[in-house]
Amino acid sequence: MTEVVVAIDEEQLVARISNLIARAADDATSRDDRIFRFGVSGDFRNFYIFIFTSLHAAAIFVAENAAKDYIKKMAFFFPPDRLPRFDCLLLGLGQDGHTCSLFPGHRALDDENMWVTWELNAPKPPPSRISLTMPVINNARMCMFIVTGASKAETVKRILRDKEDLPATRVEPIDGTLFWLLDQEAGRLLNSD
């Protein structure tokens, strides 16, 4: 199921995002293992999340090794014999239609053999990146695109109205829900023409 919400203002957008994350967390923690598996795409180099447990310093690897290392870390939380199932993934959208460092026309977009893939020639900095693969993204219980700003309006239209084959268009949870949460500017072209 896909739901598109064009919020009337920032307050409504933030409230909707918060409510959906809370719902996903409540659903996850009511299941047997009581674990909320939450993923966020995007550049978080300037964000620090403080978890009050012992953390080990992350080693810096080249992209391929970083992807393999990330898979090992994920294996602690997901059974190794099947695709990881995130409870909620927050996704962003690039003007070229990319999401999660999966760019149009790049090898990583079609990687279906691993949980995490790598990109060495991303068309925007940084050139070396890692990303969840499309099969893992589409195995999530809930995916939420959060898109704001007039600069994304044309891309949103190309994906949601025109169904153009872009990486973000390929996000279609198999047994889950997809939300497109847009501000007025990002959603302004959906009802035009």
Written account of the structure:
The longest helix is centred in the first third of the chain and has 20 residues. The chain has about 190 residues and is an alpha/beta fold. Strands 1-7-6-3-2 form a five-stranded parallel sheet, covered by helices on one side. It has a two-stranded antiparallel ribbon with strand order 4-5. The two termini are about 25 Å apart. It has one domain: Rossmann fold (3-Layer(aba) Sandwich). It contains four helices and seven strands; from the N terminus they run E-H-E-H-E-E-E-H-E-H-E. The chain is globular and about 45 Å long. Pfam families: Glucosamine_iso (PF01182). It comes from Pogonomyrmex barbatus. One of its GO terms (biological process) is carbohydrate metabolic process. InterPro entries: 6PGL, Glc/Gal-6P_isomerase, NagB/RpiA_transferase-like.
Outline:
This protein is an alpha/beta fold. It has helices at 10-29, 63-75, 134-137, 153-160; strands spanning 2-6, 38-40, 88-91, 116-119, 129-132, 142-147, 177-182.
What descriptive keywords fit this protein?
6PGL; 4 helices; alpha/beta; 193 residues; two-stranded antiparallel sheet; globular; NagB/RpiA_transferase-like; 6-phosphogluconolactonase; five-stranded parallel beta sheet; single chain; Rossmann fold
